[in-house]
Amino acid sequence: MKIVLDVGQIDYAAIAVKALPLLRDRIRDMDGPAARMLGSLASLPEPLVRTTVAAMPESTKDQMVAYLVNSNEERIIAAAQSFAEKQGICLAVNSIRVEE
Q: What does the domain layout of the chain look like in residue ranges?
C-alpha cells in the first residue's frame, strides 16, 4: 500500500534551523549541490539562516528539503514507526522519498 502525502506549505527556514545543528557533521561528508548549500548554511547564526533561506528560489528550497528527507530516510522511518508504536499502532514503513 502507498500513502501519498501532498505537502502544500513548508516552513523551509524552520526546517533548516532545526536540521542543520543535527546534521552539521554529516553534511561535511555529503556530495552534491544541495549538500554544499546546506554546508554553507550550517555555519551561519539562526537569524541569518532564516534570511538566507527566505531569499532562496522555491526550487532551491525544495531541493534542500528533498535532500534532507532522502538522505535521512532511515531516521525518519524509525521515528514514524516509534511514534506509531507508542500509539499502539503496528506500522512498517518501507521507504520515504521526496520527489520534486
A: 12-86
